[in-house]
Each structure stands twice: as structure tokens, then as C-alpha cells.
Amino acid sequence: MIRTSFNDGWSYRRKPDAFQALLGRANEGWEPVRLPHDAMIRRERNGTDPEAGHRGYFPADGYEYKKTFFVPEEYQERRVTLEFEGVYRQGRVYVNGDLAGQRASGYSAFWIRADHLLRYGTDNEVRVEARSEDDTRWYTGGGIYRDTSIIVSGLLHLALAGVRITTPVIENDQAVVAVATQIQNESAVTRTIEVSNEIVDADGAIVARDVAPVTVFPGDEAVLRQRLLVADPRLWGVERPNLYTCRTAVTAGGERLDEQTTRFGIRSLTVDPRRGLRINGETVKLRGACVHHDNGVLGSATIDRAEWRRVEILRQAGFNAIRSAHNPISRALLEACDELGMLVMDELSDVWTRSKSAHDHAGDFAGSWESDLRSMVVKDLNHPSVVLYSIGNEIPEVGTAAGAVLGRRLAEKVRELDGTRFVTNAVNGLLAAGPELFSTTAADRAESAESSTADGGSAGGGTGDVNELMTRFREFMPTLMTSELVTTRTAESMAYLDVAGYNYLESRYELDRTLFPNRVIVGTETYPSDIDRNWRMVRDNSHVIGDFTWTGWDYLGEPGIGRVEYQSDPPPPAGGTPGHRGAFPWLTAWCGDIDITGHRRPASYYREIVFGLRTEPYIAVHRPGRHREPVRLATWWSWSDSVSSWSWNGHEDRPVRVDVYSAADEIELLVNGRSVGRAPAGEKNRFTASFETVYQPGELTAVAYTDGGETGRTCLSSATGDVRLDVTTDRNQITADDRDLAFVSVTLVDADGNLYNTADRRVAIELAGPGILQGFGSADPRSEENFFDTVRMTFDGRVLAVVRPSAPGAITVTVTADGCPPVDVRIEAAPAGRAEEVPITGTPSGHPDHSAAGSHPCS
């Protein structure tokens, strides 16, 4: 079969009124676009619509796409299929005006057979309709946001996703690679053909080959199973993600009828409560990150390079596993995980049959779950990175008999499709136990209110009281989750799983080792501030195989669930939500270890230290302008309001709090060589040493000591003098196709590369050459700017631009800002197959290179 990208040549618009055609306006409003494309991210946000809060205050709407493509006469003797990897949502595909197929889910890939609707030897039109509503609890985007392809094959051909590879036998000196090849015969005659499969290693050498004949009757299909022996296999694992390629060919009488290449890895998986999760016989603890599907400044547009970059950064931050929250992961992200050694928990859905939003997928789930689940599993089959399938997230039905029956059906369908991975479900004890558990907490809340009133507080809902009650409820959670009601309500739904997924149920880890000695547990969702305690429980309990924080990467929507609000901050406007969600203009969740531009926040370095992967101390400075100001609200997903910088212009000689994260016994803090003091750190002190000092420009140094000896130090230097632009791009050569991007980071620094986080200013981007600005923005979680302006305000001294090539050639990116010398960077968009991944730093004319801003080891 010939698979070709179908991403170019599209136009889109907001879905017009049905009577537009009658009024002569059927062709108005169309804009050219290259897929993948997010139609929602381009809309103006609306802070007056409370229903839009979940998705970051972007409006819901319907969208329409169309494309004209030529179909040759000879295709009458072939099969033409259109593939859509993701259309959000309720996608309907029309070919030449007639409905060809549809998909309710916004996250499932689907195929459209177009033969019967095509006109041969002339142009054809494909049109796609999609709509987004109040249908989810986070930002979804809208439109055709993942890749599309056109697939052309002969009448006798490999089935779509028709090559399945498993590795049932793995020994030190050999491995058996089992290849199941599905062939379909849509011709009118019986055909006997030959199927060959070659296994090729990373060096291009053929290490195994097998050929076998297959007879297929007209209108029938056949599955050929071949077992190929690979000597001295290079196994796939997290640290050494070795990959092989299977080359499949279908021939008859010397004529090649079809072919396909499939990447796979040779690796084994086992799980048990004594040794946990083992890959190739070695125990692996999952250092997990929950991630949503959007790509920050790109919205939900799933362009391959953005997915790869995300995995690269997550790996650098110490994660070795991703949970796709709460929908099937993209194919591009899977390929990146295979290549880079990142494990995957792929998740089916946030709902089953009970709605969480007014128009969510619960209304379609009963009729579509089998096709949605099949789409996810078929996509994942040959990817060694996938180790767990999650059949749901925080499903209320799991605490009921009917929900347990449905969950068992889902789990068994997964096993029918793929028995080589493990099945889990992300269970929330509060939802599973239902109203009875909430009624238990009601009495506690009433008692808390009485206590607050007796102590002089107000029980009438003032901001202090809200914060107190949330804190009390948070502290009560461990006891609440270990109740007998949670135990009994979740027992049946946990029993049909290979691995029990616990959302915020870490207080049950050791209890359930006794109650359910054969149960294996994974922390599918945990609070970021609890990672030190949780990771100790993961390390100490063999039946707990890992922890997935909420979240590894910040995301659009659920705005402000990780925010910190101070007493002097303006209260939410009338109709606002002072609790779980931030009022407009909040845009991002602000709970990720990594922000939406890919910059690591302090929590990321703290986690890396807890994981035992970083020895240097890390310095996090609380904003001095907020020193000791009472916090009105810090949610369960909040981190400290801190920045790794010692540049606080305008706050000279004012008090400041400094946190130093370290696994060492003790930390000494120095300001300009003068010791502020020493404080204990390490695990007994939650890996944090805190200091109160006064901001004085110069150098801030943290020195770590263990057993009295120095084990590492980190320095921050104040930025001085003129503000300059440090401009870097992730690669100076990219591929001029629809799947590559260049990420251009802009940082405000001084001449020595020190971060100017208090000098924020408007930065302008200008492109020359064959490229477009795909997105431009900062990590500011409250920004009211859009991601397509050519001028953006930096946030804490940083902003990110994303460039997409439109043709081969040189792209020049010019960056300017008030009071700064302009900077040019050059990106070469090479024809496919010629791009190299080489980092580059842009420099102003006549000035030396600037080093990366941020903390650094010092002598």
C-alpha cells in the first residue's frame, strides 16, 4: 500500500448556518490551512461564559474543513482509504457531498473507505465537520488536530494495521519474533501469493528472514503466522531502547503487490507483587508523568516534532513513563517514546456512561467503546514503549455492580486484542464510594466550621474559612480513603485488573498489601507536593510499581488548579470560582513540573532530586514582592511561587525567602560570599532547606554537605547592565515537510547570560523565507494575549516561538525588543531526508555568544 500525507491543501471555517448556501454565501469565510490544525486556539477567549472555564475560556463551536484532490482513472482497480488520526469532535466525513463515515470520539483514529463515492479521472472533494461543546474538563481544541493520510492499495493487499509483531521467547543468545500478517483479497479470483518478512537491525543488517505461500479466496482474508529466530538480540529497554524493523512484502509471480515496514522492539514484560514490574527480567519503577494532549502555544495541533520534543524534555527531567490523560496518545508520541526509551500507559477515556460535562462522550460511549478501544489497541500493538492500557479515569460507575460488569467487559476486550500488556484503571476512591463517603465528611466539615467560629473565624464562607476547610479536607483524605466503604466499593473493579490504578489513594498502599496480598498497584495520579513521601512508599513496597504526578507538563484548560493566591490579590469576580478553578484570565492549569513552553519549573528539579537523579542542589527563590504575605489559596496541586533567579531589581535590601532542594544532609547558603547560615536538608527534611535573608545583588550560592564533606554547589548571579536577547533554536536544520518544527527560545539576559526575570518586555518576531509562525507565547498562566500575534510579552524573562516550514530553503528569524540589540537566527529547511539535529545559538551582531540562562554549578 502507498500511504501519503493528506495534510496539505485544506481550507477551514467556522461551521456556517445551514441556509448560507440558499443565500449565496456557501463559499464565504474559508481560510487555507495545513494540518494538523487547531481551530479553537485561534478564537478569542470569553471570560463571561462560565461554561467555558474548563477549556480555558475558549468558546465552543462547530468547524468545517474541505479539500480538493485528484483521483486517477487507474484507481478504479485499487482501494482508496482516508485515515484521520484525530478529529475533535463528532467528526463527519463527506466525499463529494455524501456522508462517507463518522466518529463520535475526538481522540480515536478512524478510516474512511472512499472507493464507492469517488469520481475517477477528475477532482474530488472531501469535507469534514466537527464540533466542540461543553464536553470535557480540560482544553480540547477543535477540528482536524492530528495527521491525515490517503492510503492506496491493490485489490489484494495487506490489511490496514495488518502486521502484528510479538516476541514470545527471549533468551540471552536468541529471541523468537512472531509476525502475524493479515492479507485481504478483494479481487474476483482466488490468489496464491508469497509473504516475506525480513527483520533488520539498527545497522541495516538483515538478521532473520522467512517466506511462505498463502492462498486467499475472493472476498476473504487470511492470517499468516511466521516465527523468525533472531540471534544475539539487542533488547528494548528504558536505558537502551534498541529497535528493529520488520519489512513485509506480498508478491505473486515476481510482482510486488504490497509492502509495509514496521518498527518494533524485543522485550519481555512481567508483573507480580513481589518483584513488581519487570522489563527483560529487571525491576523498573515507573517515574511517571501524566500529560494532556495539547502542545501549549500550538494548542492541540499534534505536529510530530512537538511530540518528540516533549518526550525529550520529560526524559531530561527524570521521568521514564507517561500516562496519556485521559485519552489515547498520538502515534507520533508513541514513536518518540519507542525511540527515546519512555514507557507508556495509554488511556481510553475520562467517562463511561455517566457524564462529567453536559455534552461529553458518555452519551456515545455505550455504542462506541468497542471501536474506540480497538482503535487504541491496534495503534499500540507494535510499540514496545506501551506497557499498560488504562480503560478509564476516575469513573464513578466502578463502585457499582453495573460498572464492574462494564469494566470487566472492557478489560477482557483489551486482552482479546492484545494479551501481551497489562490492564489498569485509574480509580478515584471518592467517586467510587459515592455520596455515602461525602456524607461522612460533611460532619467533619460542620465540626471544622464550629471550631473556626469558636476561634474567632467566620463560618459564613469568607476566603480564610474556605482555605481552612480545604486544608482540613486535604488532611483528612488519607483517613477517608482507608475507610471500609472504599475497600468494599472498589474490590470487584480492582479484581479484574492486572494492575490496580490508584488516584490519590496512596494512604492505601501498605494497608492493601495486607488486605489484598496479590494486588499490584500503580499510583496513576498523585499530588506533586507529595512526591517525596510517595516515592519512599514506591521504593519500600514491591507491590507498588510507580507514581504518576499530576502533571508532568502544564496544559491549557482547568485553569489555575495549581495556582497560589495571596491575601492582597483581587477576589474572583461575581460568578467566579474561588476554589478549584481560576477565574478569567486564567488560561493554564499551572500545575505541571514543566511549563507549556517546555521550561522546567522548580518542582521538576525537586522531583529529580527525590528520584535520586540529581546531586547538585537547586535554588528556588520566592518572589520578594510577596514576602510573608498571607496565602489565601493554595490548591492540592500548587507548588511554591518561586523562581530560580537572583535578579530582583527594585527589591534591593528587602527580605526574601530562599529554598534549596537537596538530598544532602545540610545546606549552607551564601550571599556574596557571606554565610547566611546552615540548615538541614535531605529526606528527613523533605529535601528542602529554607532560609530567610535580604536580597543583595551579586551571587547567591548553595553548598551541599554530607557527612561533613562538600558534595556539590550551585550559584545564581544577578543580571546587571543592559538587557540582551538570548535566542536559541532547538535545531538549525529541519525537514521541509508537514511534520517538523523549529522551537525558538527567547530569554532576557545580561552580557554574561544571567536571567533578567524582572525586566519583562514585549518581544517581536519576524520571519523571512519559507516558514510560518505556528505559535508564539510565554508560560504566563494568566496571559490574555493570543498565540498568533507577532508581538508577545515575556514572562519571568522568557518567551517561545515555533516556526513551521512551508518549503525547502533558509528561514531567517529576527527577534527584537525595546532597548535590546536585534538578533537573527537562521534555520535551514532541507528536503525530506537531509535534515540534521544540530543545536544552534543566535547572537546579536558584534556581541559574543550568550550562555543558557538559569542556575549553574560553580567553583
Q: What are its keywords?
A:
single chain; alpha+beta; TIM Barrel; 8-stranded parallel beta barrel; glycosidase; hydrolase activity, hydrolyzing O-glycosyl compounds
SSE inventory with pairings:
Blueprint: E1 2-5, E2 10-14, E3 31-33, E4 61-71, E5 79-84, E6 87-88, E7 91-95, E8 98-103, E9 110-113, E10 122-132, E11 143-144, E12 148-153, E13 156-170, E14 174-185, E15 191-200, E16 206-216, E17 221-231, E18 244-252, E19 255-264, E20 269-272, E21 276-279, E22 282-283, E23 286-291, H1 304-316, E24 321-324, H2 331-340, E25 343-347, H3 362-380, E26 386-393, H4 401-417, E27 422-428, H5 429-433, H6 435-454, H7 463-481, H8 484-495, E28 500-503, H9 509-515, E29 521-526, H10 531-540, E30 544-549, E31 564-566, H11 602-610, E32 618-622, E33 631-634, E34 642-643, E35 655-661, E36 666-671, E37 674-680, E38 688-694, E39 699-706, E40 709-717, E41 724-729, E42 733-735, E43 742-749, E44 762-768, E45 771-777, E46 791-793, E47 798-805, E48 809-817, E49 820-830, E50 840-842, E51 856-857
Parallel strand pairs: 23-24, 23-30, 24-25, 25-26, 26-27, 27-28, 28-29, 29-30, 42-49
Antiparallel strand pairs: 1-12, 2-3, 2-4, 4-10, 5-9, 5-12, 6-11, 7-8, 7-10, 13-14, 14-17, 15-16, 15-18, 18-19, 20-21, 21-22, 31-33, 32-34, 32-35, 35-38, 36-37, 36-39, 39-40, 40-51, 41-43, 41-50, 43-47, 44-46, 44-48, 45-47, 48-49
Helix pairs in contact: 1-2, 3-4, 6-7
